[in-house]
């Protein structure tokens, strides 16, 4: 009987752990690099800047000369095994 209760307790504990939210990925660009990111498009390349950061010291910035020359910053992530995902990001438009 004690063994069955122990096994049941283990399963209950694992179930509770699996129901908590987990951050899969975060990048505040505080490393000062774009390592691991892919950049597509034309215009000025993406850079890490320290002016006007929304939080922290650094941020990623694309400053196209006009709206036709913007580029895209892309990050590939494996989401295998995850469910009920929420994606959030923060951006600031200057000017």
Explained architecture:
- The structure is a single chain.
- With 95 residues, the chain is α+β, with helices and mostly antiparallel strands.
- The protein has one domain (23-95).
- It is 18% helix and 15% strand.
- It has a two-stranded antiparallel ribbon with strand order 1-4. A two-stranded antiparallel ribbon has the order 2-3.
- The radius of gyration is 21 Å and the shape is elongated.
- The mean pLDDT is 77.
Strand order of the largest sheet: 1-4
- Termini separation: 69 Å
DSSP summary, beta strand count: 4
Low-confidence stretches: none
Radius of gyration: 21 Å
By secondary-structure content and strand pairing, the structural class works out as: alpha+beta
Element-by-element helix/strand order: HEEEE
- The overall pLDDT average reads 77
The number of helical segments is: 1
Query: How many independent structural domains?
Result: 1
Largest beta-sheet details: 2 strands, antiparallel
> How helical, in percent, are the residues?
10-25%
**Percent of sequence in beta strands:** 5-15%
What is the molecular shape? elongated
């Amino acid at each position: 009987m004690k063994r069955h209760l122990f096994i049941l307790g283990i399963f209950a504990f694992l179930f509770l752990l699996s129901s908590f939210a987990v951050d899969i990925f975060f990048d505040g660009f505080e490393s000062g690099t774009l390592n691991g990111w892919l950049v597509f498009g034309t215009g000025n390349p993406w850079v890490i800047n320290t002016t006007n950061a929304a939080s922290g010291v650094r941020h990623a910035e694309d400053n196209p000369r006009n709206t036709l020359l913007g580029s895209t910053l892309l990050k590939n992530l494996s989401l295998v095994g995850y469910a009920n995902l929420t994606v959030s990001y923060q951006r600031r438009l200057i000017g």
